[in-house]
Amino acid sequence: DAGVTQSPTHLIKTRGQHVTLRCSPISGHKSVSWYQQVLGQGPQFIFQYYEKEERGRGNFPDRFSARQFPNYSSELNVNALLLGDSALYLCASSPNRENPNEKLFFGSGTQLSVL
Amino acid sequence: EDQVTQSPEALRLQEGESSSLNCSYTVSGLRGLFWYRQDPGKGPEFLFTLYSAGEEKEKERLKATLTKKESFLHITAPKPEDSATYLCAVQLTGGGNKLTFGTGTQLKVEL
Fold first, then answer.
1. What is the pLDDT of residues A31-68, one digit of tens each?
2. Longest dimension (CA), chain B
3. Which residues of chain B does A106 touch, with a Cβ-Cβ cutoff of 8 Å?
């Protein structure tokens, strides 16, 4: 079975640009979560969706937005990129409706570099 | 403020040398504590979920335990393939649908 797939795997942008990161969850998983991981740190929560509804939002500026599509795939958008947005962006899926965080399945991430 | 602290930051073991990793937490209410393993260039891989003090979970050479203030990940007779960063995370009661991760313990097991 395919795991969580994220695209692209690597991305280089310049300050002020915008970026769209994509995530396809494991088949049958209806929840998608996004995390940002800066080198040497643990992942930091950005968003969680379940069946297209936002279930949670982390402490990130409004430049960060996301959505989930009817096929449960998801996009994370970041506008007006800053140098500090350089990080590994992780997507995780879960089949659990009551508590998606019970067991998260992570993709390998998109490494974003902002120059 | 809710905090998750992992120690040590890095640990080097000889193959077969058992040890423990620590995750201490200061939170208003714990819904669950989670352990993940992360290999370089990969996303975290789920290991365990613990919900209440006294609970223990085991998987191969790993055993996770939980008290009211901390969790331990015990590694028995580790092998080089156990080398990875081990992340601890907590989910709070009424804390929304997020996990709060620690900064991890980087484990290296040498022959």
1. 999 999 999 999 999 999 999 999 999 999 999 999 99
2. 45
3. 36, 43-45
